[in-house]
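Long-time lurker, first post. I've been practising inverse folding by hand and with some scripts of my own, and I keep getting stuck on stretches where the structure tokens seem ambiguous. Below is the full token string for one chain I'm working on. Before anyone asks, I'm not after the true native sequence, just a reasonable design that respects the backbone. If someone could post their per-position residues I'd love to compare against what I wrote down in my notebook.
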């Protein structure tokens, strides 16, 4: 594969053929000679955790891990067995890394504070949605893992909640894994968004989508239309403009919504489009969680030439006040998100 990932960086000519996740991470790490490799280790381990999760997801119908765990998570949602398993795999894979001070998860009410590391290398905090879209598991519809990495704010010792309650622009890496027709890991460390597809023959992630960018077309409109009557006026006007208007940009736009935000986001990143989950009567602050769903995907969107808004401010500027805080979100192509923001401003001005 001949590709230059970014200006001034080694081209991949010398990496003829397979560019595995491991070689890509090693290449990126070589750009930071002072790096001790702790951050790179976290990315590697996330790759390992996702391989274990995908192996379970691929066999979910065959062994007794389908269906509900019988517990209710902090979100008040029925926990599916694979939710729990994904959470446990992530914790077992990452918790012994010296660089990780703590982990926050959709499945855990409080943050998981890891023992301080003697040489105080525990610099990072990780946030996960272990399995987004888990209500789809029994129907064999694609689901995904979302992750976010930030530097802790406290200097040392056991991490604090304040280490996690940081606005999304403080992230230093974010990504997701889609368990679909293939397994893909997509992430960014601030130098573009790169996608790796699992090659089952060798059990390795291979660079398949370098420098992912939103194409400048709105191919997909992704929303749960059953909530239309609950949406506020700007949201309804936005939806009507795209679906029923005369704007030539939207004459070929299709509705696509599968109930797994991370997969809708991934498809929209590849084809162009917009996903929205605004506030409604059931979810007065929106349904999606800020810290481990909206912030990481918003950070990736910005890295890929798109953006994300809550309607009142950019998602990445929201200052969190609660670990499992929810926000309304419109995310995808910059042109569509800015169109939404215009409808909101016009409504406020009317
Ligand atoms: P609804 C999954 O539970 C999720 O958090 C997102 O991944 C998904 O887009 C949304 O909720 C689906 O919610 O209300 O449309 O079923």
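-- Answer (accepted) --
I ran through it position by position. Result:
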């Amino acid at each position: 594969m001949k590709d230059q990932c970014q200006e001034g960086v080694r081209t991949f000519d010398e990496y003829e053929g397979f560019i595995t996740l491991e070689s890509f991470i090693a290449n990126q790490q070589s750009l930071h000679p002072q790096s001790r490799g702790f951050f790179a280790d976290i990315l590697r381990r996330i790759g390992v955790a996702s391989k274990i999760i995908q192996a379970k997801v691929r066999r979910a119908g065959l062994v007794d891990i389908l269906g509900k765990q019988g517990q209710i998570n902090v979100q008040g949602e029925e926990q599916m067995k694979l939710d729990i398993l994904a959470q446990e795999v992530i914790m077992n894979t990452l918790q012994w890394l010296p660089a990780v001070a703590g982990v926050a998860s959709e499945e855990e009410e409080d943050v998981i504070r890891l023992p301080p590391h003697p040489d105080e290398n525990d610099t990072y905090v990780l946030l996960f949605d272990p399995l987004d879209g888990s209500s789809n598991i029994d129907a064999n519809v694609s689901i995904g893992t979302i992750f976010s990495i930030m530097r802790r704010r406290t200097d040392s010792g056991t991490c604090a909640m304040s280490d996690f309650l940081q606005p999304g622009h403080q992230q230093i890496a974010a990504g997701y894994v889609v368990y679909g027709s293939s397994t893909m890991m997509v992430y960014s460390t601030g130098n573009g968004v790169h996608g790796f597809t699992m090659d089952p023959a060798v059990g390795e992630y291979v660079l398949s989508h370098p420098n992912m960018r939103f194409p400048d077309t709105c191919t997909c409109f992704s929303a749960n239309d059953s909530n239309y009557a609950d949406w506020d006026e700007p949201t309804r006007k936005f939806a009507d403009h795209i679906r029923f208007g005369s704007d030539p940009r939207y004459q070929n736009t299709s509705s696509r919504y599968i109930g797994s935000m991370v997969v809708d986001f991934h498809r929209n990143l590849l084809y162009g489009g917009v996903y929205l989950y605004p506030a409604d009567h059931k979810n007065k602050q929106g349904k999606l969680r800020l810290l481990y769903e909206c912030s990481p995907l918003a950070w990736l969107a910005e890295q890929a030439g798109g953006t994300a808004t809550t309607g009142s401010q950019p998602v990445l500027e929201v200052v969190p006040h609660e670990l499992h805080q929810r926000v309304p979100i419109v995310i995808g192509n910059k042109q569509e998100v800015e169109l939404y923001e215009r409808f909101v401003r016009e409504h406020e001005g009317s």
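A couple of notes from the structure itself: The first strand starts at residue 68 and ends at 72. The chain has seven helices and 15 strands. Happy to go over any region you disagree with.
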